[in-house]
Amino acid sequence: MTPDRTVRPPAAAPRPLALPGFERRTLPNGLRFEYAARRGVQEVSLRLVLECGAGVEPASHAGLAELTARLLTGGMPGRDAMDVARWLDRLGARFRAAAGYSVSTVSMHFLGDVLEEALDFLAATVLESDFPGREVERLRSERLDQIDRQRDDPATVANLATIAELYGDGLYGRPVGGTADTVSEIGRDAVRTFHEARYRPDGALLIVCGDVDPERLAPAVEARFGAWSGRSGRVSPPSAPPAREGGVVLIDRPGSPQSELRVATVGVPYGTEDHHAIIVANAILGGLFNSRINLNLREEKGWTYGARSGFRFRRGPGPFVARTAVETAKTGPAFEEMMREIEGMRTGLVTADELSLARNALTLSLPLQFETAAQICGKVSRQRIFGLPDDYWETYRGRIEAVTPDQVQAVCRKYLAREHLTLLAVGDAETVGSSLDGFGAVDARSIA
Predict the structure, then answer these.
(1) What is the CATH number assigned to the segment(s) 248-446?
(2) With 80 as the cut, is the pLDDT of residue 158 above it?
């Protein structure tokens, strides 16, 4: 029988989400250790999560946690930075260390037959790094150069100005990588002191997933990390900033042909009761290509290559930011359309088609996010860092599919009130001109 090609075939049943079971242990020194064997795929990923993010560094040394993480491969007794690089190259492994606001993470990815050697490398970098002065100076100079170059990137200027506007002098108001003033103050002694105080096992978590033999893995981990000692304690989230009225900020970038636009407010942390409704609401507003603000500004108006929005969930209340870039002359009109779409989410119910599209986008692709060992480590580490339930991913689809139009409207009313939204533009003030009239008083500034 010839199929009718004018009729779309029915969708196949969603693929089930099959997650490997993780075994958990805690070493006598307090290091938590989780592992899952995925035999038949000759890859192993691991992630060491340490409670030493920017939330425990002095504000005067903002960027210290990130710089310390980047310096882990800078050398140790008997090996300089080049020796460490050659060692990693011989392993054929990937290595990355970075800091966030709450935690720092050290990640590795390698073939299963170099497991013991990879654990040797991990232990040496985390436990034995001595942060040579020349490496501290080199990476600090690199970071200062990066900060200086950010002034030439209007998107970065807009991002940094937005969080500073929302959070002021609070933790989330400054970049994890620090500022020129604070990074300039970081020397070898500060790095070593931070490492000594915060790189500790009691509070740390090691996650391993891939082609591993548990009988071989557990003794290997204990042999390399069992003598590690000390407590670090969980990094507490910052307090929510005081509620504040929104405003309009214009950062002058003379001659800029485009304006970077942000509509932002303080959002929520992980773990709110309406967490899944927020996710669905944002997908409809600006989280997907077919979201309202993207269809409006890109597809209908042709003013931008893309417009997006997102709630950045953290241990504390992270920001909500809607963002786009438009021709400078369209700055005011683009803000009008973005605000109109936000208000439409607050005052009306989303359609059945919009809800179905958002649910499908958020759930049908979920199994693809758990295909590799690295992906699984990343998802599990997120659960542990933010205290999500053990069944968070297994129940995710059902909770997303249960979200109703009324719940979508409720979270938009609750978290996206007009009076708390900050409008920020980075563009040519002379061209923007009066296009921002009608939004209230404009706070005009120069790029810092």
Answers:
(1) 3.30.830.10
(2) yes
